[in-house]
Input
Amino acid sequence: MSRDRIVSIETHLVAPRWIFVRLATSEGLVGWGEAIVPKRARAVRGAIEDLAGNILGADPDRIEDLTLRMRNGGFFRDGAILATAAAGIEQALWDVKGRRYGLPVYEFLGGAVRDRTRIYAWVGGDRPEGVVEHVRQRIAQGFTMVKMNAAEELDYLDSRASVTKAVERIASIRDAVGYDIDVALDCHGRVHRAMLKTLIRELEPFHPIWIEEPLGPGLEDELSHVISPDCSIPIATGERLTSRTDFRKLLQHGVVDIIQPDVSLTGLFELAKLGHLAQAYDVAMAPHCPNGPISLAASLQVGFAANNVVVQEQSFGLHYNQGFEGLPAAEMFDYLVDSAPLTPTAGHLSVTSGPGLGIDIDEAKVTKSPDWTLHDPDWRHADGRLAEW
Output
């Protein structure tokens, strides 16, 4: 056992919508993690404070033990708020451990299996528009894959025009740039099962690299009833799930081809375990991460050591970073001492060599960032009913 002890855990809300976790030890080590669920930031901050109260004074090297205590120590468990609070603290513990021993976290996970990780970029925004020009910009930046929302809000039974609009969007990209770039389509849980059948059938000729989150959260068991056995488009999902228990059920249905866990919900070590679990089903992993720099750095540490990670999401140029809801704009490099570890080259990020998560946070910039509050979107159908966004 280490003589070192956890002495403080702090939460920092930084622009544009990121939740950083700073953990310090009695030996002067500092580690950083990142939580998500920004539209419930005050609840997340409170959950981090509650969990911190249970582990202050503990040995920071006992990461698995502390993670089990945070996730399973209370009578009530699970849910996104507790999951992301525990994940943010757990990432910071790994950062401390790596710095203590002078090693990148991936060395604790079996070592690197690759030299670089492919990344993709978002285009089009929440209600996708201007996608052709945006795709051209991404190609110029060196990206070989983009993702966009497949459609705007769709009703349980929607119009032919709505489906045509969604199909024409990807058709316009193929007309403009052909197959020089891979395109993933994110249904974002907006598409109900009746419309999904039609939408997937009509998207197949344009060969998206995957269809993501085709049904809303909690409906993963229904995928096997909706996705045709002869569907040629790979199916990806899982960004809102938090544990192996959730993913085991998803994988057992045999419909999903790519799982998309988020390190700021699962935690870093659980993400690694999920990669191994997916391999047992011959399923790939493409970690979800439209988040900030610490979440990306943590996710990459797993990806560097996981053979079935095929691509990594990241937030460079994401529409949420451009002054979302009047907040100051910020990019993932803005809080780093050195931007090099997270600077893409030809649509990839190279394996980092620095200790811990491989990045250094500029604490002065973190403390200067304004606090913020985000509100839920209020999307409505024409008759006034709430729509999935």
In short: The longest strand covers residues 6-14. The chain has two domains: 6-103, 107-357.
